[in-house]
């Protein structure tokens, strides 16, 4: 079937799925995006992202929204600061200053809004949680959603994240626990309300890693700082400790115990938050993750290569995936040819990135993680 007349369904309105839809629409190819959220504002989209020149920014350029991104981006967010557990700043530097080489930061929510606004009205069907996708034997699929809606598609794109429903059509793989859990909190109006902690964080990201633990603070827009207390621990650490994650005081006390001996300022990032605590165990797909070519369906982003955040590549790769898949659809006369060409690029690239991410999280949460962190950033000066 010709790609120019194909019905294309993207499941998941994250950065990768939206980039794919935008590139297709920009070249006159119709596409529908289905998302489980009830609306574009239904939930918080998470922290800040740095857009790399050879991946995220390349995808934004392909989508024709690079200038809009640069208008929102925070170049100062490139700052990386390494702090020892005693509170001393051990490393402090910006990334490349050249606009063509740097990786400016943008909030995930701002990036998503930018991409949603770039699409034709009605492209995204909100409140559509995919329940099943039935192969019809000719490469097409019938989609059934929890709200009772159905649709048929010639190309089904699984951009539906870590716990992808679409993935089961091509692969039995499921994400596994990495051994590391983040507990997230945050500081609101940080410069005014928490000036000492804001100064310690700097304008970008501050990392303090030592002996299987870490405190990471990340500037977002609007004066907000997201804070992650990281632990190498079992997935059920809170249940083992008899901890109710909705009991803010109890979680705070448990974290203070985990970071006994760390500086008061670093502990302040964990204890003085304004947003409570959210438990975030980190998961990853097996490395490498691949699948046999399956007519009429493919994956992108976390559905294809969920990895730890210690590569800095997750969202960048998802967006590059989306742009590359759209370009393959545009460049090939058939859906099958497009998917084959796309996966030929996607699979080795994502395997290499996922291997780096697995190595990164192992180094970040190790007995000698402080030394490894300093060596890593020293090499990047």
Short recap of the structure:
The chain is of the alpha/beta class.
The strand order across the widest sheet is 5-4-13-14-15-12-16
Order of helices and strands: EHEEHHEEEHEEEEEEHHEEEHHHEEHHHH
The tally of helices reads 13
CATH H-level homologous superfamily name of the largest domain = FAD/NAD(P)-binding domain
Under CATH at level 1, the class of the largest domain stands as Alpha Beta
Average pLDDT number: 92
- Tell me the Rg in angstroms: 21 Å
Fraction of residues in β-strands: 15-25%
- Summarize the biggest pleated sheet: 7 strands, mixed
* Helicity, as a percent range: 25-40%
Low-confidence stretches: 96-100
Dominant shape: globular
The tally of beta strands, per DSSP, is 17
- Measured between the Cα atoms of the first and last residue, the distance is 51 Å
Going by helix content, strand content and strand pairing, the class is alpha/beta
Q: Report the CATH topology name of the largest domain.
A: FAD/NAD(P)-binding domain
Can you tell me the number of structural domains?
A: 2
Named at the architecture level, the CATH assignment of the largest domain is 3-Layer(bba) Sandwich
Lay out the secondary structure:
Elements: E1 8-11, H1 15-26, E2 32-34, E3 48-50, H2 56-62, H3 66-72, E4 80-83, E5 89-93, E6 105-107, H4 108-117, E7 124-125, E8 130-135, E9 141-145, E10 150-153, E11 155-158, E12 176-187, H5 190-193, H6 195-201, E13 205-210, E14 213-219, E15 225-232, H7 237-240, H8 248-258, H9 264-271, E16 278-284, E17 297-299, H10 302-305, H11 314-331, H12 335-364, H13 369-379
Parallel strand pairs: 1-2, 1-11, 2-7, 4-13, 11-17
Antiparallel strand pairs: 3-6, 4-5, 8-9, 9-10, 12-15, 12-16, 13-14, 14-15
């Amino acid at each position: 079937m010709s790609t120019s007349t194909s019905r294309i369904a993207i499941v998941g309105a994250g950065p990768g799925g939206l980039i794919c839809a935008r590139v297709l629409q920009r070249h006159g190819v119709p596409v529908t995006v289905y998302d489980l959220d009830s609306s574009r504002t239904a939930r918080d989209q998470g922290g800040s992202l740095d857009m790399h020149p050879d991946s995220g920014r390349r995808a934004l350029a392909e989508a024709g929204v690079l200038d809009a991104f640069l208008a929102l981006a925070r170049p100062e967010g490139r700052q990386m600061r390494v702090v020892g557990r005693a509170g001393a700043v051990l490393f402090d530097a910006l990334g490349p200053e050249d606009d063509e080489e740097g990786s400016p930061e943008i909030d995930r929510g701002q990036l998503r809004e930018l991409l949603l606004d770039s699409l034709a009205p009605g492209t995204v069907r909100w409140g559509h949680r995919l329940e099943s996708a039935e192969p019809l034997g000719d490469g097409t699929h019938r989609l059934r959603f929890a709200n009772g809606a159905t649709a048929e598609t010639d190309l089904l794109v699984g951009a539906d994240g870590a716990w992808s429903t679409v993935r089961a059509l091509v692969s039995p793989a499921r994400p596994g626990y990495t051994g590391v859990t983040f507990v997230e909190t945050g500081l609101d109006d940080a410069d005014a309300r928490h000036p000492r902690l804001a100064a310690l964080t700097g304008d970008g990201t501050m990392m303090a890693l030592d002996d299987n633990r870490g405190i990471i603070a990340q500037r977002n827009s609007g004066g907000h700082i997201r804070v992650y207390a990281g632990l190498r621990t079992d997935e059920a650490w809170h249940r083992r400790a008899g901890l109710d994650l909705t009991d803010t005081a109890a979680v705070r006390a448990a974290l203070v115990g985990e970071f006994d001996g760390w500086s008061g300022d670093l502990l302040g990032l964990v204890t003085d938050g304004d947003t409570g605590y959210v438990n975030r165990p980190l998961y990853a797909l097996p490395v490498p993750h691949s699948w046999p070519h399956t007519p009429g369906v493919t994956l992108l982003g976390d559905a294809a290569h969920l990895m730890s955040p210690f590569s800095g590549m997750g969202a960048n790769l998802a967006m590059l995936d989306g742009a590359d898949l759209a370009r393959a659809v545009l460049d090939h006369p058939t859906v099958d040819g497009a998917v084959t060409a796309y996966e030929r690029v996607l699979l080795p690239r994502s395997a290499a990135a996922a291997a780096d991410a697995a190595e990164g999280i192992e180094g970040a949460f190790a007995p000698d993680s402080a030394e490894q962190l300093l060596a890593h950033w020293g090499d990047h000066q």
